[in-house]
Amino acid sequence: MSAGDAMHPGLNLGQTDAETHARAGHDLFGFWIFLMSDAVLFALLFATYGVMLRGTAGGPGPADVYKLLTAFVETVVLLTSSFTFGMASISLKHARGIAPITAWLGVTLALGLAFLAMEYNDLATMVGDGAVPARSGFLSSFHALISLHGLHVLAGCLWIVVMLVQLCVFGRDGRVKINMLRLGLFWHFLDIVWVAIFSVVFLQGLAR
Amino acid sequence: MNRAARSLTTLVALAPLGGCAALKLGVMNAAGPVAQAQWDLYTTVAIVLIFVGGPVLVLVPIIAWHYRRANTESAFRPDWNFAWPLELLIWIPPTAIVVGLGIVLWQSAHRLDPYRAIALSRSPVIVQAVALDWKWLFIYPDAHIATINRLPVPAGHPVRIELTSGTVMQSLLVPQLAGQVYAMAGMRTQLNFAASRPGVYRGENTQYNGEGFARQKFDVVALPPADYQRWVRRMQHQARPFDAAAYAALFERATIPAPVMYSAVPDGLFGRIVDRSRLPAAQAQR
Amino acid sequence: MTGAALLGRLGWQSLAFVRAWQDPSLNTLIAAGAAALVVIGAVAVVALITLRGQWRRLWREWFTSLDHKKIGIMYVALSFVMLARALAEAVLMRLQQATAINAPGVVDAEHFAQLFSTHGTIMIFFMAMPFLTGLINYVLPLQIGARDVSFPLLNAISLWLTAAAAGLMMASLVVGRFSTGGWSGYPPFTETGFSPGVGPDYWIWAVTLGSIGSTLTGLNFATTIYKKRCTGMTVMRMPLFVWTSLCTSILMIFSMPALTVATALLALDRYLGFHFFTNALGGNMMNYANLFWLFGHPEVYVLILPAFGIYSEVVSTFSTKELYGYASLAIATIAIAVLSFTVWVHHFFTMGQSANINAVFGIATMAIGVPTGVKIYNWIWTMFRGEVRFTVPLLYALAFMMTFVLGGLTGIILAFPPLDYLVHNTLFLVAHFHNMLIPGLLYGLLAGYHYWFPKAFGFRLDERWGRVSFACWVVGFYLAFMPLYVLGAAGMARRSSEVLEPAFRPWLLVAGAGALVLAAALAALFVQLWVSVRHRRANVVPAGDPWDGRALEWSVSAPPPEYNFAVLPHVAGRDPFHDAKRKGTAYAEPVRYAPIEMPRNSAVGPILGALGGWAAFALVWQIWWLAAATVIGMIATVIARSFVRDVERTIPAETVARIERDWHETLARSAPTTRDFETTAINRGLAQVLA
Questions:
Q1: Angle, alpha carbons A178-A183-A187 (nearest 5°)
Q2: Is A4 exposed, middle or buried (0-12, 13-18, 19+ CB in 10 A)?
Q3: How large is the average pLDDT for residues C459-481?
Q4: Alpha carbon of residue C449 to chain centroid
Q5: Is B58 exposed, middle or buried (0-12, 13-18, 19+ CB in 10 A)?
Q6: Would C627 be classed as within a structural domain?
Q7: Quick check: is C406 in a domain?
């Protein structure tokens, strides 16, 4: 195996040895597996949501509580944040200094926080209207699924903050790069989950 | 010490004798067409399984002993690791057996589906069973009577039990008559069976549901049809009427010392209990 | 600040001692005695370590270690402690049923329910899981020619989360009461309406902590196997134990989340009034049954597959012969792993679904029997034309094959829905799964323990006590569980604290006697350890190959150096060390030694474990400030760790050279042993090789 074979395509690790590249592939592989297991978590919550959909117990149903417009705006915000994270990844590989990376990361963070704020607003409105999770099995499963995704986004935002600090402290050392790649996988994964939530929960809920 | 050992030996030796008494309480002593069919299936499967497990039970000790290190007569081929004939022998026959058993399984699962009505010429008796803590309520909707912890049925008639729970999930089993089905709050399940001869058969809840669980037993009393009719009429006239107090008492978490009978059971009691479970706790109290 | 804000639901009444003081009865005294045992045991251990001045050493060399070997040993030690507790509970339950035949027995109904709940929970999550995780941890990197697992720190974190969860189980003996809902924790019984106390919360958080640890472990092992195999070790050259570890890891990754979801949703119901599994307001407990068994059935194979791997190693080594049908064993392992996700409904055939569904899942269940049966025959053909040595591990393997097949047969009976209706929830079921798990898991792990102990500690376990213990495990098993088949067929419900049928008495007495024999088996195992440690000088095997082993773990000293391999091996076949010994290339000294990088020790594992344990305790007792503080502490620890850059340390080439030369001198001094003397003091760990 030559050093070229072992080069991780997502990384520009500079003139480093093959072992470091192998290590990078290795660490990312582990993170992929983690994401698979996380995906199972979401899949089961989706299944639970499907089971509970009819358990409205006389309370509000999907059509009563979902607001397509805000959900659509949230989708756009989150998808845009995935794009800006992609730009951060590209500047991680090609740009000279860390300024472009931190800038794109900052935009991503802002979009993530905006998404969280809108989602919080949505949930608060629902709670204000009496659509609390304790009202019915359907609302329980809806709130659990949305909140789990929200918690993931929150964790992602915290992670972005940590990476911004690390970029300032360490510059682009090997560990920072690997963690940036992991964070990227995580962030795009959240996007994919949200796309599923938007289509399975919101679109289908309103189409019913 | 020695005496203890001897009494233990005696006990072990006598165990099969006492054991026969135990087995009389189970499906081996089937008293109805469902349990009988289940027992027949049981024996059929067990016979097939002798051929499944037998070779292993025979081969393991023989091969291990024959090829023991001390036996210098036996062949020793440390690099031998594969043979197609053996390979086919260990994959194909077991697969064939599973295919065969699978066909038996498919048919029996449908034939002995607990939802399937028993094909007997006589009219079925409908009973609604409610799992409670820690007792069983049996409602006879047609006769407007109800019992707690006692289930009289006419021998030779099909019995259809509809089940629900007024509390946590439970499971109703009468080993000599039929298998079990869960009773769940807010839901209805069903169990069909028949007793072919008069007698008293033990019924129980098998799903743990709290402190009184071990005492949540009842008797299924199969009566000759004429006796059964007499019993129904007697209950309709003599048993105490089912009133609000009786309804409230159902949901107390307690065992009861002896069976209780009620008359004048209102229509739709079962449905009312099914619906009750779906309400939040505060409303269900009312 | 009020008391409730400070201590949540915690009060004097929570202590088992106080309850026994206020209401002294046999029942509360037993509870207080168990609690006292936990407290005295903990105090004694702490005192002993303090008196001997070993804290610093323990912390430096063990608790903060990221060495997979030490982590593995700590896992196994944890599992032995938990095995002792859960087995004691089993004996108490058997005694209760044997005496409470129309009589009060020794414990009350509520206490009995706690016993069966903790027994099951501990045996699965805190005995079996740590035991197999420990063995895989120890052996896997050695077998694939690696210096450690992929993520050593994550490995330590998994260990300490598991240990914290086990600690929570122990705490439940002293403070409060455990769940009475069994190891599966079925709602709505475990909802607040029916179980308002802390019991189910103990269960939820102990299991959740443990399952997070297991998910991370699975991830770690899978990555290790995919990425860290040494040069030349293709997938089809991996030892069978590595194959089964891989399948187990994959099962962990995909099945553990289902458990996490089930317990988390139950926690939402209990803490925040959600309606996932409640009776009221659209809750649906059937969803819980599906989620739990979506985890629960693959879990069975998580437990059993590593044991299958161990049997493959043991049977081949002690038959002096290559494993028969390597490919078919590997295929069978994969088939079992895949099929294990398709059978979960057989745990609730009686839930009222249609006959079609039951029949499909019943047939899928029987289908698993085919690859399992194939495996058994593969081991039989491995002994065929071999030279079988009846050492303790091989005895376990034989007992397993004979006993497991009986459990498989009753499993096929249970796979028939109409037959399951009769014996579901009865002692027949209890007998069946013990009949699978005791030979299929415990015997396997004990075989592995005897097999690899000399590798880990450098001396063999006492053979005589090993045989005594083995005999007790086997006799005890048959006595304790065969009667339960009869009782189950007679319709005796499981989990009964009282028995109303005198006809059951003889069988219950025999089963009770069997439980005592099983307790003797564990005692013999501890005696064996004690005797072996005392006589360790007579039984040392420093050369590292006491059994004429075949895979790479035997090619290094016993115990192995912390870096495992001075030079990472290259392999060209399935039994690399066996082949090397025959070719005379084993024990070759390299021309020169290179420095080796190993991970530095880290306190992150124990810190996260301690914080996680306290967080769980705080959640159980609803001490919100503590829960918040510990969770924030955990997040802060992880972030702080990400700023640490100095995580590796280098072992200089001279040190490696010195360690390796010492070992080669030992090798040169050792006389090769023939297999006739392998269980005697002559065995110094150098196998005599016959060409």
A1: 150
A2: exposed
A3: 96
A4: 12
A5: exposed
A6: no
A7: yes
Amino acid at C198: V
**Contact: A30, C287; criterion CB under 8 Å:** no
**Record: contact C227-A25, CB cut-off 8 A:** yes
CA dihedral C599, C600, C604, C607 (to 10 degrees): 130
Q: Which residue of C has its CA nearest to A53?
A: C282
Domain contains C579: no
In three-state secondary structure terms, B55 is helix
Neighbouring CB atoms inside 10 A of B210's CB total 19
DSSP element (H, E) containing A85: helix A68-94
DSSP 8-state code for residue C127: I
* Neighboring chain C residues of A55 at a CB cutoff of 8 Å: 275, 281-284
Closest by CA to C417, choosing from A140, A51, B41, is B41
In this prediction the ipTM stands at 0.93
| CATH number listed for the domain at residues B125-284 | 2.60.40.420
- CATH number, domain A3-207, options 3.40.50.880, 1.10.4160.10, 1.10.600.10, 1.20.120.80: 1.20.120.80
What is the CA angle C565-C222-C184, rounded to 5? 130
**Coil, strand or helix: which one is C141?**
helix
Q: Count CA atoms within 13 Å of residue B69 on its CB side.
A: 15
**Which residues, 6 or more positions from C471, have their beta carbon under 8 angstroms from its beta carbon?**
none
First to last CA, chain C: 79
Taking the CB of residue B226, how many other CB atoms lie within 10 A of it?
9
Question: What is the rounded CA–CA span in Å between residue C432 and residue B78?
Answer: 36
Q: What letter would DSSP give residue C501?
A: -
Number of Cβ pairs < 8 A linking chain B and chain C: 320
Q: Select from A60, B184, A200, A35 the least CA-distant residue to C288.
A: B184
Whether C284 sits inside 8 A of A175 (CB atoms) is no
Give the start-to-end residue ranges of the domains of chain A.
3-207
- Rounded CA separation C211/C162 (Å): 8
Q: How many domains, chain C?
A: 1
Rounded to 5°, angle at Cα C493 from C369 and B4? 95
Q: How many residues does chain B have?
A: 286
**Does residue C447 form part of some domain?**
yes
Q: Which of C477, C649, C466 is nearest to C563 (CA)?
A: C649
pLDDT tens-digit map of C626-680: 999 999 999 999 999 999 988 899 999 999 999 999 999 999 999 999 988 999 9
8 A C-beta contact, residue B195 and residue B153: yes
CA C57 to chain centre: 27
pLDDT in tens, chain B (286 residues): 455 555 555 555 555 555 678 888 888 899 999 999 999 999 999 999 999 999 999 999 999 999 999 988 888 899 999 999 999 999 999 999 999 999 999 999 999 999 999 888 888 999 999 999 999 999 999 999 999 999 999 999 999 999 999 999 999 999 999 999 999 999 999 999 999 999 999 999 999 999 999 999 999 999 999 999 999 999 999 999 999 999 999 999 999 999 999 999 999 999 999 988 877 765 655 4
Test the C interface: residue of A40, A132, A161, A170 with most C CBs within 10 Å: A40
Distance CA C620, CA B172 (A): 34
Range of the domain at C176: 54-540
Answer yes or no: are the C-beta atoms of C578 and C549 closer than 8 Å: yes
| Nearest CA among C488, C284, C96 for reference residue B173 | C488
Distance CA C519, CA A172 (A): 59
Describe chain C by its helix, strand, coil percentages, rounded to 5.
70, 5, 25
Which chains touch C (3+ CB pairs under 8 A)? A, B
For residue B130, report the phi and psi dihedrals to the nearest 5 degrees: -120, 120
C8 backbone φψ class: left, alpha, beta (φ>0; ψ -120 to 50) = left
